[in-house]
Amino acid sequence: MIKSLNTETRLRHIAIIGNPNSGKTTLFNALTGLRQKVGNYPGVTVEKKEGRIVFDDGSEAVLLDLPGTYSLTANSPDEKVATDILLGRVDYTPLPELVVCVVDASNLERNLYLISQIIDNHLPVVIALNMFDVAKREGLIIDVQKLSAELGVKIIPTVGSKSVGIEELKAAIARHVEPSRKSRQWILPEPVQRECDELKGMLQTMHHLAEPLAFHEAIVLLTSTAALSEHNDRYAPELIDHVKKDRLQLEKLGIDRNSIVVESRYEWIKRVCTSSVVSQRQNTNTTSDKIDRVLTHKIWGFVIFIGLMAVMFQAIFSWANVPMLMIGDAINWMDSQIMQAMPAGDLRDLLVNGAIAGVGAVVTFLPQILFLFLFIGFLEDTGYMARAAFIMDRIMSKVGLHGKSFIPLLSSFACAIPGIMATRTIENRKDRLVTMLVAPLVSCSARLPVYALMIAAFIPPKRVLGIFSLPGLTLVSMYLLGLIAALVMAWFFKKTLLRSETPVFIMELPPYKMPSLKSVFLHMWERSALFLKRAGTIILGVSIVLWFLATYPKTENVSASVSLDRSFAGRAGHFIEPAIKPLGFDWKVGIGLIGSILQREVFVSTLGTIYNIKDSKQESGIMSLQEHLHKDTDPATGLPTFTALTAICLMVYYVLAMQCMSTVAVMRRETNGWKWPIFQVCYMTALAYVGTFIVYRVGILLAV
Amino acid sequence: MARITLNTLLPGEHGIIERVDSAASSIKQRLLEMGLTKGTDIEIIRFAPMGDPIEISVRGYRLSLRRVEAESVIVLKHSS
What we know:
A: alpha/beta; Rossmann fold; elongated; B: alpha+beta; SH3 type barrels; about 15% helix
């Protein structure tokens, strides 16, 4: 990995930009290899990816991977970052000395729209005319020299997935490149041009903007669909007044000021394409179309979608189990090694029950995360992800979300951590936040041990309606409860806290393509490494604190159960008893709840410790734990501590409560702050409390 | 030729864009920038399995949008 890229200012700073689906990431990977670093832009949750190009002569340059965008007048946080950097409006990143623009050759017209905006900014530009092979296969032949002459920019044909043209692209980047020598060629209608020039002059004199930036801003001010008030803090009031008059003037002339600039650009692009595209696409019925006829078919589309999701779910749920068990064994082995090698004492205890337990909690999630991102990588890289959103959008829009929110929610059935990380495909910040906030309500695999214990111990194996078993139905109900809670809360947040319209669904359906293995694996590795690094440190810290609370103050020569009872955690369990009594829980459950803040499964082993069961992780241990739970009575009343109702209440609590430090840590990383994870813990705890309370009260009334 | 909104076209039918008439300004901007400018030919490719969103072909690529958004695109229907 690279050390402190930013401090070395002597290196050339180059940016790479392009439309989504233009193959930008593949080219970035091909140019930089594994010399990449991922971070965040200050103040926003947009990811910053930098890499390093090594040229033939051994010299290097920093390559910044700008977020994919369709234009420089866009609104999403990702697109704003790209725009601000290219306009030199930010101080955290220097203005790029060269911009590598990735253009999808098979989708020339729309890709050139962004290029026309970048060229206007007078930055030195090299164009990578990517997916040249796809265009050719479809019979679309582009005269590269002609196009290059029209744009006044150097163009290198590339095929990122096959590393074609990479050396030529590198050589072009290495040379000193000048901005396009051609002056702006798209033409505005006379009245608009006049207002624009006037405004540009004002921006240059009043706000000392450089010429290209002043032109860009003049256009934005005159034609943007956003309200003028948004620019109030940036520009002088008299300038804003002037713009107001100009806008009115244009409207009086019957000019649609919103569309005039876009139309003028596209008119020019059409001319450029007509002159430099030698032969048009032969047949419009492409392979992608044939695939789509099946994959988005009314019936087959659903069947295949559900099939794919089932395989993905299976992978995360059961295939990942094998490596997870191996990791568990490895951790147990390390435990036993330390137990043998070190004398009994606090240090050994800290290592085994604090540090290793914490690291273990992080590492055991790794197989699930790897599997999920392997799948997501493939789905995205082939182009299927857009189809999944296309198919599911109707359902998701009912609760005010985007079709893209479906996969994160589904992944959360396995584990909320990969689920939350999968929300990165959602562009709209509010929608992404809502999805992240509700994802942990979906029942993950870590809740299963709690459900399993409670159901096995307290739900009688009766038959319902002849075919269903009561325990099975109970389990399904818990999963359904989680899913319904997630959807209802999503709808609620969209109506209140994160109030916004149902997100716009204007999404490109890119042609299917063979996935690039390199990209998929690199993506998987990058996500996983980030998870280990960022979430790992927080979880390790918390697990050590929890170990401390469960161990101190020490009581010598008593059983583990008494020792736990007298520890800080035990006292806290007693302390919260009045609060959880209305839910039908006693202090023992209280200790279990506190102990399982780190992760839910711990509840089972904590109860094991309370009831003094040696091997609560083994099957025999679970059996005897079930017996103990049955026999336990309240010393004051003589009534059983646990009943079927308590068991159901406990499960409902676990469905709705956060009880997972790793999720909190990932939320902290993904939202770049503590505000949202804290809010999430609070609302989920409140929801769990109220939900369980209602279930308990209704249960008593019905006398379950 | 009839002047209608994009959502009333059926799969296989073509139309030429007259204007984008969206109440929400950001939607208008996005649709224009995605190439839905005046005079551009578009074809409805298909509807999603549940009838919404719809897939269209514009400027040689495929775009999907919901019926509500398609309602703001005014087109001249023509056959071909």
